Amino acid sequence: MLGWTTDDNDGNKHVRQCFKNCHTPKPTCTLAGTLCQRQVDGEPSGLVVELVPMVTRGDVILDTPLAKVGGKGLFVKELEVALLENRADIAVHSMKDVPVEFPQGLGLVTICEREDPRDAFVSNNYDSLDALPAGSIVGTSSLRRQCQLAERRPDLIIRSLRGNVGTRLSKLDNGEYDAIILAVAGLKRLGLESRIRAALPPEISLPAVGQGAVGIECRLDDTRTRELLAALNHHETALRVTAERAMNTRLEGGCQVPIGSYAELIDGEIWLRALVGAPDGSQIIRGERRGAPQDAEQMGISLAEELLNNGAREILSEVYNGDAPHEYPGHPPVSRWRRVSEPSAHTGAGGLAFSAD
């Protein structure tokens, strides 16, 4: 924590607390950081938040598909280093970018209320995915989106699409693509909801783990900050994301592999759906679970085991070992990953450490 003195109207000196909130330069995270600042500043604590934009490896490498870049934490590592070096007190992340494991001493303490988690079909000439003529070019940087698109529409040409939202829309407008797939949440946060021609239901495009949710990471021994952030935690969203991340943890997945997972809370019960797909869409393994909210983590683990036993293990092995099919040159497989440490007592099997009071 940083502190300085300020004068009130009576000339008295008071110490005000300030913490630094780092985030990536992606507009969605910038807006999320600003929202976090406004929410926390509204607390009667005299707290002031300083926004600290930071550039991550994932923000810099824009000419290579994420799957080819490989590795975990492409959009979070630099922020975590800032936390560990006390250059920042909290880090704001898009939950779909957050790895299932955290560095020693750090953890996810708050998950804010989820925005619309669906994928968005964006096109200037067509109203829906099914309206695209055969041979149309569709842009996406996600193997998860790619495998589902290829399964539903094998007659489409799927090409890699990197860059921020503005860059991707410009490429669409310049005629490089007939349609592109983006996140509804990102477009809405940027005030670009009018660009959405159709929101794709989970039955067509199952979202990424944590998609649409924003998480806040901090040092686990920073009790004061954790107490301040507890008020921002959204209990229902945290439960849903817990189930999704527990499943992803068991699969040892990341944001660059063809894994989808989406949990809903309906009538007091969690409905968790998940899939693992071959990048070319030739095989997709699906499963689901329904159960009590308190069993969210175990549901995720159980569903992951089912997927692995039904063929997901072989699909992921090909992806991790770099043996996935190359029918889509824009999406080479990721390099092999391995677990480098066991989950800490703070992160647990679901990779989460948050207050859900």
Automatic annotation (TrEMBL):
<feature type="domain" description="Porphobilinogen deaminase C-terminal">
    <location>
        <begin position="239"/>
        <end position="309"/>
    </location>
</feature>
<comment type="function">
    <text>Tetrapolymerization of the monopyrrole PBG into the hydroxymethylbilane pre-uroporphyrinogen in several discrete steps.</text>
</comment>
<dbReference type="InterPro" id="IPR000860">
    <property type="entry name" value="HemC"/>
</dbReference>
<dbReference type="Pfam" id="PF03900">
    <property type="entry name" value="Porphobil_deamC"/>
</dbReference>
<comment type="pathway">
    <text>Porphyrin-containing compound metabolism; protoporphyrin-IX biosynthesis; coproporphyrinogen-III from 5-aminolevulinate: step 2/4.</text>
</comment>
<dbReference type="Pfam" id="PF01379">
    <property type="entry name" value="Porphobil_deam"/>
</dbReference>
<dbReference type="InterPro" id="IPR036803">
    <property type="entry name" value="Porphobilinogen_deaminase_C_sf"/>
</dbReference>
<keyword id="KW-0627">Porphyrin biosynthesis</keyword>
<comment type="subunit">
    <text>Monomer.</text>
</comment>
<dbReference type="GO" id="GO:0006782">
    <property type="term" value="P:protoporphyrinogen IX biosynthetic process"/>
</dbReference>
<comment type="similarity">
    <text>Belongs to the HMBS family.</text>
</comment>
<protein>
    <recommendedName>
        <fullName>Porphobilinogen deaminase</fullName>
        <ecNumber>2.5.1.61</ecNumber>
    </recommendedName>
</protein>
<dbReference type="InterPro" id="IPR022419">
    <property type="entry name" value="Porphobilin_deaminase_cofac_BS"/>
</dbReference>
<dbReference type="InterPro" id="IPR022418">
    <property type="entry name" value="Porphobilinogen_deaminase_C"/>
</dbReference>
<feature type="modified residue" description="S-(dipyrrolylmethanemethyl)cysteine">
    <location>
        <position position="255"/>
    </location>
</feature>
<feature type="domain" description="Porphobilinogen deaminase N-terminal">
    <location>
        <begin position="47"/>
        <end position="226"/>
    </location>
</feature>
<dbReference type="GO" id="GO:0005737">
    <property type="term" value="C:cytoplasm"/>
</dbReference>
<dbReference type="GO" id="GO:0004418">
    <property type="term" value="F:hydroxymethylbilane synthase activity"/>
</dbReference>
<dbReference type="InterPro" id="IPR022417">
    <property type="entry name" value="Porphobilin_deaminase_N"/>
</dbReference>
<keyword id="KW-0808">Transferase</keyword>
